């Protein structure tokens, strides 16, 4: 069986030790990057997608610095720029010269910045509900999801109900959020090292609006029409700015499209990446 434990790997990315899961062996490698909510991880974000994707591709689910089982560091500069450079170092270590990138939320911001800074290394780019700009014409900023997430470590501190609130805000149908998922994310979020980096001063929020037209990779933007973390008009802005982009909307779907619409998302992603 494909599990987190059986596919777990570690590698050096410059000075950092990163964790990733690796499944499959065919085609251009597909690297998946997760969201930035407390206790997020690549396996937690893409566990329902890795099996189908690995039938055709070598898939790497990468825990970004500060998250999952990767090294917990405090990032004081622009986070997307920093992590994209770390990702480039990881790809050098693994001898991966060209890749497909799938980025969800914060992972999408990093994937976009990677495609901007290292265009020769990205074949295709798939972005899910990501907002690489700090504004929206449709919604007040911050949106409901980021606002709730920022309150997680405040007040009485982390609790399982507060974690459930974050996860349910990420979806349209809260029934997809299992108790086991909530408990696992909550327990991970109270690890002292996680608390240390998550309560440190927030790293610089980057505005990539003046760089979006530099994304050359063929791109697919995936959005839920009920996304409470990423404003739909930001997706439309990227659709207009990217050099070669298309967009797919799921109705009655929130931020976490690859979970809520897993089967449809997997078919969509495979068709896009394979053709």
Task: Quickly list its features.
alpha/beta, Rossmann fold, 8-stranded mixed sheet, 8 strands, 17% strand, globular
Describe this structure in words.
- The mean pLDDT is 96.
- This protein has helices at 42-46, 50-54, 79-93, 106-117, 144-150, 160-169, 179-189, 192-198, 232-241, 257-260, 262-274; strands at residues 8-13, 16-23, 30-33, 59-62, 99-104, 122-128, 218-224, 245-250.
- It has 11 helices and 8 strands.
- Helix 4 links the parallel strand 5 (99-104) and strand 6.
- The chain has a single domain (8-139, 202-274), classed as Alpha/Beta hydrolase fold, catalytic domain (Rossmann fold).
- With 275 residues, it is an alpha/beta fold.
- An 8-stranded mixed beta sheet has the order 1-2-4-3-5-6-7-8, sandwiched between helices.
- Helix 6 packs across helix 7 (179-189).
- The longest helix is centred in the N-terminal third of the chain and has 15 residues, at 79-93.
Topology record:
Blueprint: E1 8-13, E2 16-23, E3 30-33, H1 42-46, H2 50-54, E4 59-62, H3 79-93, E5 99-104, H4 106-117, E6 122-128, H5 144-150, H6 160-169, H7 179-189, H8 192-198, E7 218-224, H9 232-241, E8 245-250, H10 257-260, H11 262-274
Parallel strand pairs: 3-4, 3-5, 5-6, 6-7, 7-8
Antiparallel strand pairs: 1-2, 2-4
Helix pairs in contact: 3-4, 6-7
